[in-house]
TrEMBL record:
Gene: lptA
Pfam families assigned: LptD_N (PF03968)
Name under which the protein is recorded: Lipopolysaccharide export system protein LptA
Function: Involved in the assembly of lipopolysaccharide (LPS). Required for the translocation of LPS from the inner membrane to the outer membrane.
Disordered, as annotated region: 172-221
Listed GO MF terms: glycolipid transfer activity; lipopolysaccharide binding
Residue ranges annotated for the Organic solvent tolerance-like N-terminal domain, each copy included: 49-168
């Protein structure tokens, strides 16, 4: 089995037990799941708009293929990639797969419902499931929670990262594409901002310490 449960590229990863990796994946998921809002609910009802250099249609597989600086938007959802394949099921739900090559990574972004926060990320491959509002980022993946569009609150690196927009739930898995100096086994790495303010300010006067005259007995040796 592959190890479960980021920092970018380097030497070969060291194999670790699947149970250890799975526990790490679950710990990251638990750490990130305590978020009050979900992905923008209106996105699934918005049309899918795509700009690209080229487009072709595969009638046999009922698939639209866009290539060259592709930008796909659906409400607050945005996918940028070298190539995007789009399919639609009989119920009208849309599915998109974005891939990029070389040093270029595909990009994903979606607003969270009811708050001025966004989820965005990069990976070689990004799969979006419009029916379940589920996004999977594969290879050299990083996902961030942003306040507004610029301030990073959380950041997770992994070989594979999934984001469930309905439940606001993440998972991350390790992989050799994350191996590098300081992380030879390609483990998941995360930076998580505090959910509340810091410690209360020290405004009070300092306490006055006085010796006690009531302590009895001999001190212990």
């Amino acid at each position: 089995m592959n190890e479960r449960f980021p920092r970018p590229d380097g030497g070969p990863a060291r194999a670790t037990p699947a149970r250890t990796g799975l526990a790490a994946a679950l710990s990251i998921a638990v750490a990130l799941v305590a978020l009050p809002a979900h992905a923008e609910k209106a996105d699934r009802d918005k049309p899918l708009n795509i700009e690209a250099d080229n487009m072709s249609y595969d009638d046999l597989n009922q698939k639209n293929i866009f290539t060259g600086h592709v930008v796909a938007t659906k409400g607050t959802i945005m996918i940028k990639a070298d190539r995007v394949e789009v399919t639609q099921d009989p119920q009208g739900y849309q599915y998109a797969t974005g891939t990029s090559s070389g040093n270029t990574l595909s990009y994903f972004r979606q607003k969270r419902d009811g708050v001025d926060e966004y989820i965005d990320g990069n990976a070689v491959r990004i799969d979006y499931d419009g029916k379940n509002d589920f996004t999977k980022l594969t290879t050299r993946a990083v996902v961030r929670r942003l306040q507004g569009l610029t301030k990073v609150q959380d950041e997770v690196h992994g070989s594979v990262i999934t984001y469930d927009g309905q439940k606001d739930f993440y998972t991350a898995s390790a992989g050799k594409d994350q191996a590098g100096p300081g992380n030879p086994s390609g483990r998941v790495r995360a930076m998580l901002a505090p959910r509340s303010g810091g410690a209360a300010p020290l405004n009070g006067a300092p306490a006055t310490l006085t010796p006690s005259n009531t302590i009895q007995g001999q001190p212990q040796q």
